[in-house]
């Protein structure tokens, strides 16, 4: 298996798993405290308060990755297996389908990432060029 094919397969499986967790968050069979388990890691990563500051080059991002990995393992353990399998199947259909929902999903995702990059670029520009 070539490297690019392995990378594509990894990205595809990660994306399907992320969409499945998103679908699981909105699944009515899952109790509220398990939904909180789904939301808390994302809130931690997005919050400005971290165990290790994000300004430290490698360690700042490593704690976010560790929190996401541990939360993913907990999600797989505590969510009902049948609900998670059903949401994975639904996510795979969503990923491979050509529906309007998928187009809206990718446009929204692109807009959010574009906005985040714009805010980061503006912040870096101000930090770098205000000292001149």
Please render the helix and strand layout as text:
Elements lengths: L2 H23 L6 H15 L12 H20 L2 H16 L3 H30 L3
Catalogue the unreliable spans: none
The secondary-structure element order is: HHHHH
Spatial extent as radius of gyration: 18 Å
- Please estimate the helix content: over 70%
* Cα shape: globular
State the main characteristics:
about 130 residues, mainly alpha
Description:
The chain is an all-alpha fold and 132 residues long. The protein has helices at residues 3-25, 32-46, 59-78, 81-96, 100-129. Helix 1 packs across helix 2. The protein has two domains: 3-97, no CATH class; 98-132. The protein is 79% helix and 0% strand. It contains five helices and no strands.
Give a short synopsis of this structure.
79% of the residues lie in helices and 0% in strands. By secondary structure, it is mainly alpha-helical. It folds into 2 domains: 3-97, no CATH class; 98-132.
